[in-house]
Amino acid sequence: MNILLVVSEVTPFVKTGGLADVAGALPKALARLGHDVRVILPRYREVEASGVSLTRRSERAVVQLDSRAREGSLVESRMPGGTIPVYLVEQPALFDRDGVYQAAGTDFSDNLERFSFFSQAMLALIPQLGWRPDIVHGHDWQTALGIAHLKLTRGSDRFWRSARTLFTVHNLAYQGVFPSEGWALTGLPDEAFRMGGLEFYGKVNCLKGGLVYADRLSTVSPTYAEEVQTPAFGCGLDGLLRQRRDRLTGILNGIDVDVWDPNTDPHLAARYNVRRLSGKARCKAALQRQCRLPQQPALLIGMIQRLAEQKGIDLLLETLPRLMEQPIQIALLGNGDPRYQERLTKFAKTYPDRVSVTLRFDEVLAHRIEAGADAFLMPSRFEPCGLNQMYSMRYGTVPVVHRTGGLADTVTDVTPKTLANRTARGFVFRSHAPQALLQAVERTLQLFADRRAWTQVMRTGMQQDFSWDRSARAYVQLYEQAMTA
Ligand code: ADP
């Protein structure tokens, strides 16, 4: 099958979150299953910094965006270590700037134009490559206009008419909503600006373009696929998702088990595996040193996240004074909302021996926290899939999570029963409240004091199969369904 992944970020080219990891790993897994996969994304300024090699291609396309025509071109690269072609759409005025979606915490004001251009340039450039995709797999709102165009403006196009589409929502909270004055930038027929199309309370909602017009829909965990059909999690689109529920599937993300492997990870002070765990203690000592935390036997809790309301950072802040009554240390790595950064910095000053806060995006430190922490906290309010709980389990770091979305699907709570049948993998709390978080940490401390039981839970986590191969097979099934639709 010829599969085109259309996506706005891809590891290692450019990454702001989990989407990039998915887009970096899924193509490789699909290729291993024998499919011809190619990836297309915008050429941001950041791509240069990633050090990948780029080759200029000759294809050109002009896209009309309201009253202005913009020309785009293609640069080609490859996924690391492989043969998978990666195409980058170049348009300096739109993409050669600091920041991917925003600068200094504020979205770029021309994001609708940027991603409308990307979507439409993609549709004009791919046919020039001499390769025809059977499946166009779009991800999130940045690519949704392309999905809508395939249905609404390419139905009789000789190149595109047989292509089928899958649209994956990685986070329903990000919808790409813009004032109606921007409609002309989409290039879509005016009839599509209606409630059954992309209109959303008088505005343009790009995500709806994918949700309404894709042949198949997916989200990134089975639980999230159910949650988004409810008013509490549906972000105003639950009605539409209920309408299309027979087209909607939840497929859990995998993780890149080559990049995230404590047995080979080049960033660690020592390496370890499920049979030989001793290196993990050295990783903990090294992490404490790097984070300027005293070398105590306290339970070291790691956290790595965008500092956003979704991630439950406010719940952590609210619970921190009481958490500090417990024998724990916290190593937090995060960036995002300046208000949270400020409050976290204050806590780190108040509890210098207990709380370490690093406010930046730091891939290397992320690996060291996953390896060096004893437990890993994810108090997310909602979590479509979540990757860090899986990285944690693979690194023998016991996850402590709120029961939602992919966290509910991947972490089996420690109970007498799950300990006895050796399925326990972490701690799950049900209510998003300080008391519940506190109790989960207390339960974690209890188990931590029982070395044998703790090691058992570590090992159970380390032995889980979170590889992409399993998820990739599920995606292939969806592609096949879309093609027979
Ligand atoms: P989301 O995409 O909602 O941010 P995910 O759990 O799906 O959440 O993916 C987040 C990814 O980004 C993980 O790989 C995580 O390690 C990484 N990450 C988040 N914040 C940082 C940071 N400050 N430094 C390094 N990596 C980070």
CATH architectural name of the largest domain:
3-Layer(aba) Sandwich
Distinct small-molecule ligands in the complex: adenosine-5'-diphosphate
Using the coordinates shown, work out and report the CATH topology of the largest domain.
Rossmann fold
Rounded mean pLDDT score: 97
Q: What's the tally of helices?
A: 19
Rg is 23 Å
Number of strands: 20
How many domains? The number is 2
Give a concise summary.
This protein folds into two domains: 2-254 and 469-483, Rossmann fold; 278-465, Glycogen Phosphorylase B (Rossmann fold, 3-Layer(aba) Sandwich). It contains 19 helices and 20 strands.
Can you put this structure into words, describing what you see?
With 485 residues, this protein is of the alpha/beta class. The chain folds into 2 domains: 2-254 and 469-483, Glycogen Phosphorylase B (Rossmann fold, 3-Layer(aba) Sandwich); 278-465, Rossmann fold (3-Layer(aba) Sandwich), CATH 3.40.50.2000. Helices cover 38% and strands 21% of the residues. The chain contains 19 helices and 20 strands. It has a 9-stranded mixed β-sheet, with helices on both faces. It has a 6-stranded parallel β-sheet with strand order 17-16-15-18-19-20, with helices on both faces. Strands 10-12-11 form a 3-stranded antiparallel β-sheet. Helix 14 (388-394) links the parallel strand 18 and strand 19. Helix 14 packs across helix 18 (451-462). It is globular, with a radius of gyration of 23 Å. The model has no long low-confidence stretch (mean pLDDT 97). Bound molecules: adenosine-5'-diphosphate. Residues 17-19, 21, 171, 304-306, 333-335, 361-363, 366, 385-388 line the site of adenosine-5'-diphosphate.
